[in-house]
Amino acid sequence: MSKKKILITGGAGFIGGNFVQYMVEKYPQYDIYNLDLLTYAGDLTKHQDIEKKGNYHFVKLDIADREAIMELFEKEKFDFVTHFAAESHVDRSITEPEIFVRTNVLGTQVLLDAAKRIGVKKFVHVSTDEVYGELDFDPKTFFTEETPLEPNSPYSASKASSDLLVRAYHETFGLPVNITRCSNNYGPYHFPEKLIPLTISRVLNDQTVPVYGNGKNIRDWLHVLDHCKAIDLVMHDGVNGEVYNIGGHNERTNLEVVRTIISTLEKSEVLIEFVNDRLGHDKRYAIDPTKLEKLGWKPEFNFETGIAQTIQWYLDNKEWWEQIISGEYKGYFEKQYTMK
Ligand code: NAD
Ligand code: TYD
């Protein structure tokens, strides 16, 4: 097999970081480039074990820095791009929407231009099921690839905008693209601003867990390693121009998720604190993954095995998340939750 150069944007974050490690280990014959700006959500300590490997490279860059991105693409002539870099937290998009437009929309467009200029073999745009908006509580309804885009938060609106640009670069310029839309991920290195790692870290410290509204909103949870395998498959075998939904039928209410974590850690439910609801809080997400399954994907984890593995990982890797929650994150948490 010929040596290929793979660019992974956002590879210092949660999902991109897991994908970088998965790819470096699985494909020693590929050169893996991790491009990341190292915002509050990115850190390289997670890559200590792979840093010495000859097929791993790191580039610190802003995806919206047109000149620098063009220069890098001209120099390295990447074969594949898998694009994870984004502002990813809905709550932050409610208080600071502008950076979401800059990074998620403009940044994606810059990458598309660069990919077009050098003629990449594939551009995989990692998007989210949140672009479809929300479902009601009827358990027979699911998001399919044909569901209209109806994003409700500034985050999902910025992701939907980037999806449309990716689609347009395929239709107009013939750029070989795929768009993937995944449900909520969880697993190792999940930043503790999101529900699952926030709950685990706070419960372990005997702190209250803020549950928005009545806790009955539903998310469809997928272990991050199953997401990584899906991206790998789409990058190699996805039909150009196609969208693939990724999800494993693991719907849970937020309250069920929090209760599972509390009981696994043998703590008390008095830690649950109902707080004011998120503005525009989407009721329910649920994915129909039939199209991806036909391409050959099957998840390894269900919610029970995945959450057990994840809780154990947070118990074994306290240093990683304690360092985060004692830093600038403290200020974010106080600001975010005193408003509630
Ligand atoms: P994350 O916030 O953990 O990581 C984002 C990474 O992007 C960070 O390392 C950050 O430093 C980097 N980044 C941000 N702005 C940048 C810029 N201007 N230039 C270069 N790098 C920049 O996010 P995540 O949860 O790993 O999500 C990754 C992708 O997957 C996102 O595109 C997100 O929309 C999508 N997604 C996430 C989920 C989920 O449940 N977390 C589900 C579906 C899709
Ligand atoms: P989150 O992890 O932020 O992911 P997303 O908003 O992309 O789905 O939130 C998951 C669910 O948990 C969502 O319904 C909002 C809820 N939630 C809380 O109840 N409390 C919290 O402190 C957070 C961060 C989220």
Describe the structure.
Helix 6 (195-204) packs parallel to helix 8 (254-264). The N and C termini lie far apart (55 Å). By secondary structure, the protein is α/β, with parallel strands linked by helices. It has twelve helices and twelve strands. The model has no long low-confidence stretch (mean pLDDT 97). The protein has a seven-stranded parallel β-sheet with strand order 3-2-1-4-5-6-10, with helices on both faces. A three-stranded mixed β-sheet has the order 7-9-11. A two-stranded parallel sheet has the order 8-12. The structure holds nicotinamide-adenine-dinucleotide and thymidine-5'-diphosphate.
Tell me the span between the first and last alpha carbons. 55 Å
Q: The CATH topology is what? A: Rossmann fold
Helix fraction?
A: 40-55%
Describe the main β-sheet briefly.
7 strands, parallel
> What assembly state would you assign to the polypeptide chains in this entry?
single chain
Compute the number of strand runs: 12
Unreliable runs, pLDDT <50, ≥5 residues?
Answer: none
Average pLDDT, rounded to a whole number, is: 97
H/E topology pattern: EHEEHEHHEHEEHEEHEEHEHHHH
Radius of gyration: 19 Å
Fraction of residues in β-strands: 15-25%
Any idea what the CATH superfamily is called? NAD(P)-binding Rossmann-like Domain
The gross shape turns out to be globular
Helix-strand makeup class: alpha/beta
The molecules bound to the chains, other than polymers, are: nicotinamide-adenine-dinucleotide, thymidine-5'-diphosphate
